[in-house]
Fold this protein.
Amino acid sequence: MGISDSVIIKNLFTGHIRQIVEIENQCFIDPWTDNWFEAFILSDEISWGVYIDKKLIAYLFAVWDEDTLHLVNIAVKADFRRKGIAKSLLRKLYKTALQSKIEYISLEVRRSNLTAIDFYISEGFLLVDERIGYYQGVEDALVFRKELTTYA
Ligand SMILES: CC(C)(COP(=O)(O)OP(=O)(O)OC[C@H]1O[C@@H](n2cnc3c(N)ncnc32)[C@H](O)[C@@H]1OP(=O)(O)O)[C@@H](O)C(=O)NCCC(=O)NCCS
């Protein structure tokens, strides 16, 4: 049995913001701030964490938008990658979306983030658009989308 078979995904709460920001700062060149995380966690949007021994090792944030759930942030602590943890988070997102009659999951990713792009393609996301200069006017975003009616 792998680690991903035993991951516990729970709603995040504001007491975990310090741990979230630690992972966020390791993962992104334009990290979200603690104020941003706090507002998100206190909202009705989706904010989940993955815990091992009460320590946060991954998280996912998503926004409801009509027929779509928009994935706005997903990250796994570096030493826990390639163990199926992000995949487990997405599986829970698909299930939640389908229960709410949501048809699509969409997201933007930096053109240079080849790891994330490989991950989304492995999950069956399709490239549907690009946004030139989306990141601070200097890097393009690729827009990926997955149609959930095809998800078994
Ligand atoms: C992208 C990210 C969330 C993937 O998390 P993860 O838990 O390592 O991913 P998983 O173990 O669930 O991978 C599932 C599949 O995705 C693909 N994949 C994941 N990482 C990959 C990599 N580095 N290279 C190639 N394929 C990769 C593989 O097909 C993998 O299956 P396999 O391990 O059986 O081959 C993680 O690398 C991360 O946190 N990156 C930094 C933050 C980030 O860029 N987030 C995305 C912002 S848009």
